[in-house]
C-alpha cells in the first residue's frame, strides 16, 4: 500500500519491520535452544515496539492514505 502511494520513508519502514522480525526470531531461538524464560523480555519488547511504531512511526502514513 505504501509503495503504491509513493511513501518517502518506505525503505526505513521496511528496515524497521525486518528488525522486528529478526528480534522476535532471535528471542524464539533463545527460548528453544537454551530453554530460557524470556516471556517477560519478549512481551516488553513487543509492547515497546508496537507502541513506538504505531503511535510515532506510522503517524506519517495518514497523509498518504
TrEMBL record:
<comment type="similarity">
    <text>Belongs to the hemerythrin family.</text>
</comment>
<dbReference type="GO" id="GO:0046872">
    <property type="term" value="F:metal ion binding"/>
</dbReference>
<keyword id="KW-0408">Iron</keyword>
<dbReference type="InterPro" id="IPR035938">
    <property type="entry name" value="Hemerythrin-like_sf"/>
</dbReference>
<keyword id="KW-0479">Metal-binding</keyword>
<protein>
    <recommendedName>
        <fullName>Hemerythrin-like domain-containing protein</fullName>
    </recommendedName>
</protein>
Amino acid at each position: 500500500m505504501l509503495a503504491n502511494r509513493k511513501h518517502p520513508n518506505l525503505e526505513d519502514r521496511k528496515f524497521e519491520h525486518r528488525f522486528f522480525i529478526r528480534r522476535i526470531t532471535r528471542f524464539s531461538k533463545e527460548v528453544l535452544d537454551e530453554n530460557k524464560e524470556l516471556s517477560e523480555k519478549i512481551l516488553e519488547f513487543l509492547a515497546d515496539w508496537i507502541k513506538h511504531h504505531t503511535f510515532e512511526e506510522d503517524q506519517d502514513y495518514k497523509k498518504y492514505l
